[in-house]
Prior knowledge:
Chain A has 114 residues and is mainly β. Chain A has strands spanning 3-5, 10-14, 19-21, 24-26, 32-38, 45-50, 56-58, 64-68, 73-78, 87-94, 102-104, 108-113.
Amino acid sequence: AQSVTQPDIHITVSEGASLELRCNYSYGATPYLFWYVQSPGQGLQLLLKYFSGDTLVQGIKGFEAEFKRSQSSFNLRKPSVHWSDAAEYFCAVAVMEYGNKLVFGAGTILRVKS
Amino acid sequence: DAGVTQSPTHLIKTRGQQVTLRCSPKSGHDTVSWYQQALGQGPQFIFQYYEEEERQRGNFPDRFSGHQFPNYSSELNVNALLLGDSALYLCASSLVQGGYTFGSGTRLTVV
């Protein structure tokens, strides 16, 4: 079965510190990969996506992610976290063979301490 | 260029009632998907509409139904509401192959 795993439910980092959020997926085919951010009570905002090509993807708000096929991973990184980055982050995959629906991980809540 | 618009923003219903949620996709998008996000969880795929037909369905009972109109807008209907249907319902629009744009969601509370 298709699945997306975000191993960390909560992460707390200091403002200005670096950040890495982990995401692993389980699929037979190469998926399309996404990271979304959600503030409390709000919808999902796309941070970045990977369809093909360069495995290091740049997104909005200074985020980047790296696709590693051998590890079935798509980890999200940011070199210096700002207090406004506190939110919940979701990794998602879509596989064309499965009708292009999105399958989400359970999310990682990021807390930023000053 | 408007993004995805969902209405209403919030609503409260009683168990056993029926509810209709609405979604207008981003301009140029022809595919609409619906997701249910329970508190503290990631969104779960309900179904997807393309060319006015349900193209794919997630693991949701038949109480959940939908419709897509010729202008690509969509409705999600839920019959015989249960307390467990309380959630944030998200609509996402896309092209057949492409990225997804999400609306801000409809917060449904069943009492």
